[in-house]
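Lab notebook page, bench 4
Experiment: in silico fold of construct C2
Operator: M.H.
Input chain length: 207 residues
Purpose: comparison with the prior construct
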Amino acid sequence: MAGGRTARSGWGRAIMAEGPTPPSAKGSNPIARLDATGIPMLVARLVLGFVFLSYGLEKVQDPVAFLKVLKTYDLLPLQPPELINSIAVSLPWIELLIGIAFLSGAGLRGAATAATGMLLVFTPAVLRLGISLIGSKPEFVGLCDVVADCGCGSGPLPICEKLVSNLGLLALSAWAFFSPSERFRGFVLKKDSTSENRTAGNPEEGH
């Protein structure tokens, strides 16, 4: 009887240890499987980090040029001048901090929130600027013919190209914010917590 109880108990433990397959392990959602690899998070961090670093560095080197471009957007009142001047000076440093945060993984969701907010403000502004420039030159027949300096530090670009770029950055920012994946979220690559738990639960596997 004692042996039977032990056998049943052992069988019960085996069933409980195996358990039902979690939905994430069944592979029913290809997006979840891709996110679990951490590769989309790594791509989002690297792209956003380097882009915002380059934006910030270009503007820090010539804040007066950025101020002139900022005035063309007509987003802020020109009076008092201290307001728009302070924005022109502080915004490049904010972009630098965002870039550093993405690359280091420190304050990742805060960086994604700040990046999304900036993109949501400036993307419609770029669109409005492009529309206002249609017909201002003979070659500016349509929106995608318009070439303008958006103040990002990359010089004059086709408006449509800039809009597509901003939409891509928005998608990456959203992924960085909402992704539940813990892999590649920091500068130091984290170990797979699942494998660590398995090793801790079965110490004999390590020998």
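Observations: The chain is about 70% helix and 5% strand. Confidence is low (pLDDT under 50) at residues 1-26, 188-201, 203-207.
Next step: discuss at group meeting.
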